[in-house]
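Q: Predict the assembly, please.
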Amino acid sequence: MGKRKPWISGIWREELVRAFWNGRFLVVFLLALACFGYGLYDASRFFPGLEIGMDTPFTKNAYELWLFVHYRSYFIYLAPIAAVLPFADSLWVDRSQGFLRFILVRTSYRRYLAAKLLANLAAGAVAVGGPLLALYLYTSLSAPRTLPVNSLMFTTWGAQNGSPAGILASWYPSHPDLYILSLIGMACLFGAAFATLGLAISSLVNNRYVILSAPFILFMVSAYISDRARHLGHHWSPETLLIPYNTAEVSTGTILVQLILIAMASFLLLYFFGRRSRIVQ
Amino acid sequence: MRLLSYLGIQIRQYIIRKRWLLPFPVMLFIAYRSVNAIQSLLELYSGATSSVLDVFFIAFGNGWNVVLILTNLFLFLVCDLLPEPGFGQLALLRLGSRRMWWLAKCLTLAMSVIVYTLLTVGIVVAFAARFFPLDFTWSSLAIGTPESLNIPLFTPRNASAPEAMSQVLLLLMLGWFSLGLLIMVVTQLSRRFLIGYLTALVVLMASFAVSWISNPPTWIKLFIYKHLMFNHFPYPFRDVPVSQSVFYWGIWLLLLSGLGLYLSRQQDHLASRHS
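A: Predicted assembly structure:
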């Protein structure tokens, strides 16, 4: 019997391995652990013993606990950094350390860039979605998975009468698992989009720290502007890609437009500044 | 005399440079937003009067402003005081004493704190003076609703306005100086100023984050945020006496300056690289 051929080979496999077999993933998971540790501690102190009507404390409902930690753990500020940390600066590394010349002996530049885009996109999605999925597993195992009747989470925050607002909100009362998994899916999209933006910025600038911090700065600045501009609003903030449940105006349209804008900006940057003649010198 | 010359070189090298122009646009924006906030409050409380001091308190008493902008910007301005570049190493040879060298570094940091404080307060006060009277007594707005101006409750009753202002600045200056020292100590250990800067940032951000914990436990008083701020934003009170905060910073300064002096004696300067 002959040796089984790997399902993915060449530069595609190489880039995926480099993106995922990476010490920085550990850093991302440790930082996320710190955030979630903070959130879980906060949940344990949030009006201990409070039971309003049918409500139960956050620590006694897996879904409520997940949402509380998701909201209160500051993970939202870690996410744009987590997305770019694993692999977004790899184009800069290959270019500045001279690996790129050796790689291009064995494959075409177009194929190399496509493989890098895919690997970076996947790494960004896993870096943001992975910790949230791990948190979901933890809360599901550590707290009862009863249906969140008249959610305390959404009663105490934003006066939302016990239910989340925005996109897919109607799923939460009857299908909380599906709702939380869809939030994790959106987080993956967020990670993929910001990781691609980071990679695209690396075609423009030659400083690793700028590459790693620029998506975070863009995230913060655009969140600030959309919150305060008269003709925008919080539903246009990139924060809603991660936390859509506290803003009623968040819809499929607002989410898609933001993702498309980030993707367009990334591909324009790559188109104009990521050409072989500019990158390979 | 050599110390003074070295100090002069340090000031020319680290304070008189382009990045020190950054506080101008940043503070003008903060001043603009603070003036807007006061004007909204005056519309809400018709008949109340306000002064430049109210703008000062709303700008320098807001935790978001102080942590994310003011302190962060200061840390960025002073983050590369160490490691010593090639020219600095030659100057150290001329200075002939590591103790003097560390003293000069601390004095440069102290000068940076003073210049930064004067710059930030000056810009806010100068901008606010275009809209409100330059009056250094409590305004009726501050007496009526101190919490909306980020002034701890009862402060206008118990202290004069310049006294409260000086306490705000004293705590900020002590905090900035201590964080600057922390950067220098960590940079001496790691030989990379970025590590020093990130360490100070983590200490700062962690202390800010724990201040938002529900039903706050007493141990959060050990974190710097409670001592950096005169009011404990977002709460409208202060539950640690100012004297205790000064004592807290005193311990920080003692430990960090001692550790910095010890490390400066162990440094192999010629092997370091300015990264």
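The mean pLDDT of chain A is 87. Chain A is about 65% helix and 0% strand.
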